[in-house]
Amino acid sequence: MSPSCKFMQCLQFAARKHANQRRKDIKQTPYINHPINVSTILSTEAYINDEVVLMAALLHDSVEDTDTTFEEIEEQFGSEICDIVREVTDDKSLAKEERKRLQIENAANCSTKAKLIKLADKLDNLRDLQISLPVGWQEERRNEYFRWAKKVIDNLRGTNQHLEDRLDEIFIAVLN
Ligand SMILES: Nc1nc2c(ncn2[C@@H]2O[C@H](COP(=O)(O)OP(=O)(O)O)[C@@H](OP(=O)(O)OP(=O)(O)O)[C@H]2O)c(=O)[nH]1
Ligand SMILES: [Mn+2]
After folding, report:
1. Which residues form ligand 1's pocket by a CB distance below 6 Å?
2. CA–CA distance, 157 with 136 (Å, rounded to integer)
3. Residues forming a β-bridge with 108
4. How far is the C-alpha of 68 from the C-alpha of 54, rounded, in Å?
5. Mind listing the pLDDT tens digit for each residue in 125-172?
6. Residue limits of the HD domain (predicted)?
7. Best of 89, 125, 146 to mutate for ligand 1, by most ligand atoms within 8 A of CB?
8. 37 CA distance to ligand 2 centroid (A)?
9. Which CATH homologous superfamily contains domain 5-175?
10. pTM above threshold 0.90
11. Which residues contact 63 (CB under 8 A, 6 or more apart)?
């Protein structure tokens, strides 16, 4: 199976939008590696072949973290993908504590497609955290992220056993 023309355009769009952004690690990894990882995890580890999900994964942080608007996404990639991106986008106008609380509270009410992206997003972030501490973070902040992520994941269960198993392996290794 080869990726569709639409999928490749989506990859280009996400790469352009995240072009000047870096991850928080010491190596300043290009940010686009993370949306690519999330889409790849869904394809290779969760066995998802629905391109709507794989494309929404590429776009999942574009509105939250770049100048991308939902209107742009809807115009370029359609309303179904746009609605999924909307579901996985935090409202940055809210205080961080409130955003984190809402992720836990709203997780169970998401669509299955949005839940898949949330599972893969957390899995990639937790893997990064296992490898290294983001610049400026102390050990306690990493532990707090692990504890919070488990609360979000606990409200997403029953969505994809492959991803939930990978996440549980991490929680067993890092939480007591
Ligand atoms: N582990 C890790 N995370 C990094 C790194 N660079 C950037 N991030 C991003 O940081 C976010 C987690 O950090 P927080 O302090 O909790 O959130 P904040 O950036 O919104 O303030 C994640 O956002 P997110 O994808 O929107 O997910 P989430 O906020 O739903 O967890 C993650 O993608 C890195 O090097 N390692
Ligand atoms: Mn993300």
Report:
1. 23-25, 34, 61, 64, 96, 121, 125, 128-129, 134, 145
2. 32
3. none
4. 18
5. 999 999 999 999 999 999 999 999 999 999 999 999 999 999 999 999
6. 31-126
7. 125
8. 10
9. Hypothetical protein af1432 (1.10.3210.10)
10. yes
11. 69, 70, 73, 85, 86, 89
To the query of whether residue 128 is one of the catalytic residues in this protein, the response is no
Which residue do the tokens 């029953």 mark?
Answer: 158
- For residue 92, the ligand 1 atom closest to its alpha carbon is 20
Q: Where are the beta strands (DSSP E) in 13-145?
A: none
Cα–Cα distance for residue pair 94/97, rounded to 1 Å: 8
Structure tokens at 88: 């996985």
Q: What's the gap in Å between 32 CA and the centre of ligand 1?
A: 13
On the CB side of 117, how many CA atoms lie within 13 Å of its CA? 28
